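hey all, quick one before standup. I had two proteins in the batch that finished overnight and I want to keep them in one place so we stop losing track of which output belongs to which input. First protein below, input sequence then structure tokens straight from the run.
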Amino acid sequence: MKILIVKLSSLGDVLHTLPVVHDIQSALPNAQIDWVVEKSFAGVVRHCAGVNRVVTCELRRWRKALFAKETRQAWQAFKLDLQQTHYDAVIDLQGLTKSAVIAKFAKLSQTGKRYAMANRSDGSSYEAPSRWLANVAIAVKPHSHAVQRGRDVCAAALGYALTSTLQKSLSFGLAVGVNNAYFAMKNIANIETPFVIFAHGTSRADKLWPLTNWVALGQRLNAQGMAVALAHGSDSEQARSEAIAQQLEKATVLPRLGLDDLLNVMRASAGVVGVDSGLSHMAVALDLPHVQIYNFDTAWRTGPLLADAQSAARQVSVYAKPTPALDDVWLAWSQVFGTKK
């Protein structure tokens, strides 16, 4: 059976969708699973065990110059790549018009069908054309975690049950090893170990944790002999990283890394403290000791979805308004780091 997953963006959403690959493989061992994703997030999908082929697009870039010759050529090349295979099932797990259009362009086998979500779940983005362009629209629970929603849709589309055994065997499937030579190659050989990554950046200012709290948290980690590594993906995040590092004894501002490289660095870390962001969700997918900081009561939808008591002790979310206190985050870190593998 040939299956196409359509989940284009963003980083957190793509990470939340990864467990469907393990589910499908467990239920349908002979399935071939391909995936359409924005090029900037393809590195994560390529590391997911069980994905046969990754088809990349650049809709975010193309829409800035819709009628340019380069855009038309890139779109045609993308369609040719997408339409290499005739699929028995095309599953749109994005629920937006753009993902529905991509699913519509995919080729079906003689008995193939396109599947989409029939409704919006609380707190998620959803556009009606996604169901109109599909052959089958699957109802989703209104109050549903982002990970569970995708798992439920795929099970309904492909006709398998999420048994208690399969439900508990939650796996993001990220096959990432630690290569010591990698650090020297990336010019970050001076990073001290053990180190904790601060995923402090986010595209939304209202999700930030105060810089003074990051400094104080880093100082407490330094006092325990742990260094801090600061990730960034923009000039403003780099400036924050440098401002935090300047006030710590043991801190490294990482170079601006692509997702493949960040996966390698994160895998080598002792754990992660982060706000509600793609990098923070990456720590969950890598099953690292992790504290996720929430200024909004939305951890039920995007926070760690944990299948067993061990995971629940190792990955926690901390929520408070207007923002969690330093002592609460420190207590959470002390608890999760004590349960590391």
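OK second protein, same deal, sequence then tokens:
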Amino acid sequence: MHRLTDKLTVMLLSVTAFGFSGMDGESFALPVLGLLAAVASTSLVWLFSGTRTADWVILLSAFACLPFPMLFCAAPTLLYDSLSIKKPWLAIPALLALTRAGDFTAQQLLIIAVGTTVTFIFCLRVGSLEASNEKLAALRDDVEAKNLELKDKNVRLADAADNEIHLATLRERNRIAREIHDNVGHMLTRSLLQAGALMVINKDETLRQPLSDLKDTLNTAMTSIRESVHDLHDESVDLDTAVHECIRSVGDRFTVTYENDSEGEIPVKIRLCFIAVIKEGVSNAVKHSDGDTIHILVRQHPAFYQLTVEDNGSCPADRDLTGSGGIGLQNMRDRAEAVGGMITITPSPEGFRIFMTVRV
């Protein structure tokens, strides 16, 4: 907006310079044609701004001032166009028109001088404004980048805090499960033994049925406690924690990578199955593989969960894995079948691969 206002002001000065030309009938047409040529020139510069065409238009207009001195009245506009594209040297040829200074009136020369001065002032002001805008834009971008970085750090800190809370919750569940098992479970067991002993030594028939009911109640309570402790322990098992503990047990012989892109909590049965298969797969790699890398992948698809455990150790392709293939491999098949999954064990000279899928 500043550039448009400034240019209109400069053009108005050029028009005024053209207006001080002779006003008789014969010379009136020449200033009008000069003014139209100047307007056409600056319009072309504006239209082709940023291209070589604009440069050529300014340069040709400047040289045209020598054979047609009247065009020198548009010198402020010509200078403004060259300064706006940061090529002021393109307007220098227009100074050749001053060799015919006698063709201009004193008023025209004064207006051209004033217009030139105003043009320099406008360009300096606009340049300062643009520099300030560039600094503000750079500062805004820097602040935005720092805000994004801070937001990312906050998200990571929140995730870390959530993870710590999650792990603390799991540890507390394990502690409660142990407390119930060690204290309440033992007391119920002792109560069952005492009830059984009372039933053996009791001679009163009227107490036989109440003692039997008491023993049944204690048995029911014991079963309920066992199931609760079992469920509480299973819920407290974290897949990532279990896998990382398994990885730490490998030592320095293997480079182990682990990826888990599942969203949300994997169901307990599937989670426990995956942990067992991963432990068995890593254990087999440590015992039998001659490779040096193990890759573990847990992935959630819309309709099923996927587990892959593979190493780069060589394995004879003719090794029979269709049968039992050893107790460990059979256990993996049994666990996969127990959760309704499918498991494929593929040996090859390039590595050993365990691939398992379980429907959601």
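Flagging for whoever picks this up: The first strand starts at residue 255 and ends at 260. The longest helix spans residues 106-201.
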